Amino acid sequence: MRTQTLITVAKFAKWGESFETVALPHTWNNLDGQDGGNDYWRGIGTYEIELPNPTAGKKQYIEFQGANHVATVYCNGREMGTHRGGFSTFRYDLTPAMKAEGNVLSVVVTNAESAIYPQTADFTFYGGLYRDVNFIEVNEAHFDLLKDGTAGVFVTPHCTGKTRLDLFPVNACGATLIVELKDADGKVVGTAGAAAEEHTNIIIDIANPHLWHGMEDPYCYTAVAKIVKDDVVLDEVEVTYGYRSFHVDPNTGFWLNGKNVPLHGVSRHQDRQDKGWAIAKEDHEQDIALIKEIGANTIRLAHYQHDQYFYDLCDHTGFALWAEIPFISRFIEGKEAYENTMSQMKELVAQNYNHPSIFFWGISNEILIGADNEPLRKNLRDLHALAKAMDPSRLTTLAQVTMTPMDSEHNYITDVVSYNHYFGWYFGEAKQNGPWLDKYHEINPMIPLGVSEYGSENIVKWHSATPMNHDYTEEYANEYHHDMLKTFATRPYLWSTHVWNMFDFAADARDEGGVQGRNNKGLVTYDRALKKDAFYIYKAYWTTEPMVYVAGRRFADRAPEERNVTVYTNCDEVTLVVNGVEVETKAAVDHAVVFENVALNDGANTVTAKSGDAEDTITLNGVAEHNPDYTLPDIAAAMETGNWFDDIADNSDSEEIEVIDGYYSIEDTAGVLLANEECMKIVKGWLMTQGNLTLASMLTTVRDMMGFNKFSASLSTFGQPTQKDLAQLNRQLNKVQK
């Protein structure tokens, strides 16, 4: 039988530095990857791991569940191989290199830029052996541990009970393969056997299978596969699976086991504060619990393959998953980059084939931020074809950037389509989302449409009674998310909606809203310690157990003009009680009640909202004037970039865009233009005058993500400046010599 030993300690050194002892899992960017400045260390790190002594007559393997981006493995100085891709499981057969004792494994890992995806994106690329490392011993006859990082056992269940098993044993000539199917109570409900072949196919029929039905009933079965010879079990593997049927209708959305189940949920990144990607099982469990609490029934696992443990948790909790590869933001031509997308897709599908929680394979995210061309389209078509060939039972999808035309060829590659839309944050207003979705549905009535990202920066120290886009307040985020939920509630044709994001996450290039190194769009803070007000808007829409939540508890100091009290609830009506005195009972509208101009005493006031047994209490302080600590200081000062406005003063009425040889212009590519510090300063100042504070704070990201585009085209992604305004910017750039 096989044994598995978790490796928990290693020696680690950055290239050229001394070794130190570290705990595994480990990342070298847990702190510098979250502190801002876009300067986290991306380079080569080396791990040295002392291995257990081998058992005579056994074969030895090493398993890495995640090493970012590229890892080359040596055993006792002998090269075992190189794995390219930072998110999937990979293994090597160490047997030929093992000694009787004193075995040392060296792993050289790099998160430096290369032709490996992701190339560039709005999140930190943590380096290191950030997931579990296991030392495995098996008999000569065993299920193939080198089968794309899988268990070598694949289960294809049909809701009728017909169950196909594809088994891949090695060195098992003369042995028998025996399979047992067990229900959730461990009872054997089906069994069969066959002579062991390199690829053995077994079909078992079970009567009246208990269906896996999402959050309502995530019922799982277990398949136990054994290699048996002379009545001795040589190897044994268990995999979880489930019986279910599903389809997506372009007018009514997602259907599971014949029941219409609207998919509403969140996206998730895997990092957390001070840990980066090197997180523990209890961290995964906490994330699952928080996502379940909010009432979501689907998760988009962005933008890469997540930990197997998290998929396992989703199997048993009932979330419908979108799993994807990191083919994101910037397309790179060439054989190496193409092959990397294909190998990452192959590993994603193979390693997650048995999970009943997975319904959709994602082939790309916002890949049209870069230039569109035929090699890109071919790459996407080939990824779709690969996923369908490996797993015809599931659907393919992709997440489009807003600027992708509604009739783009890209929208006809995958089975279903979603868009990342930020009307109401990066550009425009939240009310634009509904008309855009309706127009797309009208133009493409047979294509199932979803919303794969939407969100607003939400920084809990900023507050306003009159919030507006880009004030970064918790109150603006509340209005934005409430508007989005109202939009979705009247559009049943959407096959899914996924909030961006469930949790704040690290993006070291960001410096926005007075917070460095972080994307603050989460409904929960980076450390998981605080649920923002918006969390409870979703809970009001998505849960049924009676709840009320009084928003604005961090907006505690209330001047006379700031004393509206908003309550989010899934109850029909809410009663407000202030300082023990009942004030008013009002009916909920769209899961919210607003009590206007609530009378507060000077100093502390106890404010309670009640509906039946559900209630919530906060303390509000009556003050004379707005607390200035609630308002984001001048954005230019916050970004410490000096006075840009003097540099771009230009009162000309000319609308002419002039390109002058040897000087910069808006017709230069974003990569070329923004690589120049003076041009970067000019563009930031111009964006400030345009009121585009988000883009002003993200120009480094734009340079990296949109580098192939003309800068004028990049600007159109974030809004539509006037020709006069563009000409003003261009004249300033014309003064900078190349």
Number of strands: 40
Reading side by side through the largest sheet, how are the strands ordered?
23-24-25-26-27-28-29-30
> Measured on Cα atoms, how large is the radius of gyration?
28 Å
Helix content: 10-25%
Sheet with the most strands? 8 strands, parallel, barrel
Strand content: 25-35%
Morphology call? globular
Report the end-to-end length measured between terminal Cα atoms.
Answer: 67 Å
Arithmetic mean of pLDDT:
93
Backbone structural class: alpha+beta
Low-confidence stretches: 636-648
- How is the quaternary structure best described? single chain
Tally of alpha and pi helices: 14
How would you describe this protein?
The protein has 738 residues and is an alpha+beta fold. It is 20% helix and 31% strand. The protein contains 14 helices and 40 strands. The strands form ten sheets. It has an eight-stranded parallel β-barrel with strand order 23-24-25-26-27-28-29-30, surrounded by four helices. The chain has a six-stranded antiparallel β-sheet with strand order 3-2-4-9-6-7, with no helix packed on it. It has a five-stranded mixed β-sheet with strand order 34-40-39-36-37, with no helix packed on it. A hairpin with a 2-residue loop joins strand 31 and strand 32 (515-519). Helix 1 runs parallel beside helix 2 and helix 10 runs antiparallel to helix 14 (723-733).
